[in-house]
Amino acid sequence: MTVLRIGNASGFYGDRFDALREMLTGGDLDVLTGDYLAELTMLILARDRLKDPAAGYARTFPRQLEDTLGLAHERGVRIVTNAGGLNPAGLADTVRDLAGRLGIPVRVAHVEGDDLTAAHPGSLAAHAYLGGFGIAAALRAGADIVVTGRVTDAALVSGPAAAHFGWGPADHDRLAGAVVAGHVLECGTQATGGNYAFFRDGDVRRPGFPLAEIHPDGSSVITKHPGTGGFVDIGTVTAQLLYETGGARYAGPDVTARLDTVRLGREGPDRVRIEGVRGEAPPPVLKVGVNRLGGFRNEVAFVLTGLDIEAKAALVREQMGDVLAKAPPAEVRWELVRTDRPDAATEETASALLRLVARDPDQAVVGRPLTAAAVELALAGYPGFHVLAPPGKGSPYGVFEDAYVPQGDVGHMAVLHDGRRVAVAPPEDTRPLRPLGEPALPAPLPPGPVRRAPLGLVAGARSGDKGGNANVGVWARTEDAWRWLAHELTAERFRELVPEARPLPVTRHTLPNLRALNFVVEGILGAGAAAQARFDPQAKALGEWLRSRHLDIPEALL
User: Fold this and answer.
1) Strands 386-387 and 285-305, bridge-based pairing
2) For residue 87, which of 12, 56, 287, 420 is within the disulfide window of CB 3.0 to 4.6 Å?
3) Is the model's pLDDT at 298 over the cut of 80?
């Protein structure tokens, strides 16, 4: 059967608005996908739905489609998206109304069954991560557009591939290959030079969106439309493969992909082949993302300028202490961020920030009384007193947690364009997820002179969030650098370089085929990104911080 060309036009809710048009006009495609959902996005959509029961989906998608639906129809490109969020049926109806208004005959289907909110009292949204066979059923029945709720990001690619090639649930290796390709595509331009450690290797001012040429055996080539910005090489693909993953077994609802079997090869300019991916039966349970309201949060950022920074910070804390003691918030955190420089040429670079963050279940506790006390210091505090923004009332924050349910407990359903409902059976063959043993390491480099230098001179990194945990994938660009990295960057050394991780469980996973190490730091993000537990709440820059830390690196690598 022919190669299937699947493109991506969105990596998150709020991604480049014109990407649908760019992908439809930039070259040939069979399927165009859009990923709009993340843990934080589900909370945002849940809050939208509280205000309007008809809401709950990505409102930008219909606006994007209004300008491009005719193009997709003319070119025969099918569109698959999880923009349905918490209300896929509502978005499907909106798309039908739009098509009718534009006079474009398209068949719209949707996938449902992921919503388990009723089974989790007190939650704003609880949704199971479905696989790709509901999408496949809708496409096989002739849908031009398939709208889903919470499916795995990679299902947007594996579902169309299964439909096109006729794969079934037992085709584990083929499905795993498509899942890996889907994982590379899911974050859009992160596969084409966006957020890339070695971004200076190409022109990334406006990276083009990626596409995958998927073959009947599940292998693929990652590329992009000719003439678009950014670049695709083994490094950009490796970085995205490591993003928000853990060990060698990458579990999903349809298959567990073995990341330790992935082989990458350069096939030409902006073309990277992915092959050799092995798959195993999926776990017997589905992951459920549960979003709850955690309470209320407020923040005041005091600007401290010039001399006596530490003394000024101490004065603020003492002056605010009485107010905080009268009605103590459940959590109070002070953080002094030393952005100041001595003898600075600008006032901004002469200034540090003292951040006060308070959380409590009661909005009043972190609201006006707290911020009013900060304002009242304006003429009675340290010299040069001012704050970054006017303090306001406390804002709600969310808490994310994982739950798991048996695959058979979820009513995975494809609602076809003609209204027929097709139930998607759970997989007959499952396998409990267990970690693999660590593989053998390469031979270490021979002894030689070393120089103190940043890790990032010889290694790339990409990091991200999964609930309260963060992962940091680190890879070497050469075989010699890998031989050094594999022995040098242990979990213990990681903790030394990232002091926040010292009291936390850190697990290192080794992926020799990718010349990569993947570190999972448990609990570093508290209750998840929505809780904003740290300065970088989604750990997006944690990898770049690690790359900036200095180590004794062999001079032969520098």
Assistant:
1) antiparallel
2) 56
3) yes
**Contact assessment for residue 190 and residue 11, using Cβ atoms and an 8 Å cutoff:** yes
pLDDT at position 531, please? 66
Residue pair 367/260 in contact by the 8 Å Cβ criterion: no
Q: Calculate mean pLDDT across residues 461-476.
A: 92
pTM: 0.93
> Chain centroid to CA 263: how far?
23
Determine the Cα angle at 275 with ends 270 and 279, to 5°. 135
Residue 529 has pLDDT above 70, yes or no: no
CA distance 517 to 198: 17
Tokens for 495?
């903790």
Residue with the two structure tokens 């009268």: 326
The 10 Å Cβ neighbour count of residue 389 is 8
Going by their DSSP bridges, the two strands 351-360 and 550-554 should be labelled as: unpaired
- Three-state DSSP state, 149: coil
Task: For residue 62, give both structure tokens.
Answer: 């219909």
Structure tokens at 34: 């859009």
| Tokens linked to 426 | 């759970």
Which of 355, 393, 402, 286 shows the shortest CA–CA distance to 532?
Answer: 355
For the chain, give the mean pLDDT. 94
CA distance 436 to 515: 17
State the Cα–Cα distance between residues 430 and 168, nearest whole angstrom. Answer: 14
Q: Report the alpha-carbon distance of residue 187 to residue 288 in Å, rounded.
A: 21
CA-CA distance, 548 to 558, in Å (whole number)?
A: 15
Decide: residue 239, CB within 10 A, 0-12 exposed, 13-18 middle, 19+ buried: buried
Task: State mean pLDDT over 493-497.
Answer: 96
